[in-house]
């Protein structure tokens, strides 16, 4: 059941529990309810509250899961809006349209994540040979070295993002 329906049903249950409790209180004030009937009514009130509590806890978990999914989709949407595609790979543009990359198109298409390819070698023609880090079908890319600042100008700040197999020489 969707969380909104659960919340609505639970609120209805709480209102009827409250009405039941108020009715019980009035009869207790007037001292016109047998002790056993009062006890049974109180149990009914508590059962209703407990049922509503359980349903609301489930609804809360469902709402948290929905919020996480919304965040995932929003992040993926924002990443997609920044994506550029050229030279057989993907790039990520910042607010000033400056591109960072390259990113493996196969990994992105399969997982929706921006994954840097792994450096393999520099070629005499001024290109870098890169390969898919997840090794999807041994996919390689040949990209102009001057476009690949991440690989050709290693910085300490990049170390955490650099593929493990890549070594600074
Ligand atoms: Zn890949």
Describe the overall structure.
It is a single chain. This protein is α+β, with helices and mostly antiparallel strands and 169 residues long. It has 2 domains: 3-81; 87-161, no CATH class. The chain is 51% helix and 17% strand. It contains 4 helices and 6 strands. It has helices at 3-29, 35-82, 105-111, 149-152; strands at residues 83-86, 89-93, 99-103, 118-122, 127-131, 140-144. The protein has a 3-stranded antiparallel sheet. A 3-stranded antiparallel sheet has the order 4-5-6, with no helix packed on it. β1 and β2 form a beta hairpin. α1 (3-29) runs antiparallel to α2. The protein starts with a helix and ends in a 17-residue tail after the last helix. The relative contact order is 0.08. Zinc ion binds next to α3.
Gyration radius, in Å: 31 Å
The helix/strand order is: HHEEEHEEEH
Helix content: 40-55%
Structural class: alpha+beta
Q: Give me the count of strands.
A: 6
Q: Give the low-pLDDT segments.
A: 153-161, 163-169
User: What average pLDDT do the residues reach?
Assistant: 87
> Could you tell me the strand content as a percent range?
15-25%
Described by the principal axes of the CA atoms, the overall outline is rod-shaped
> Which molecules other than protein and nucleic acid are bound?
zinc ion
- The helix tally amounts to 4
What is the domain total for the residues? Answer: 2
Order the strands across the largest sheet as they lie in space. 1-2-3
Task: Report how far apart the termini are.
Answer: 58 Å
Major sheet size, sense and barrel closure: 3 strands, antiparallel
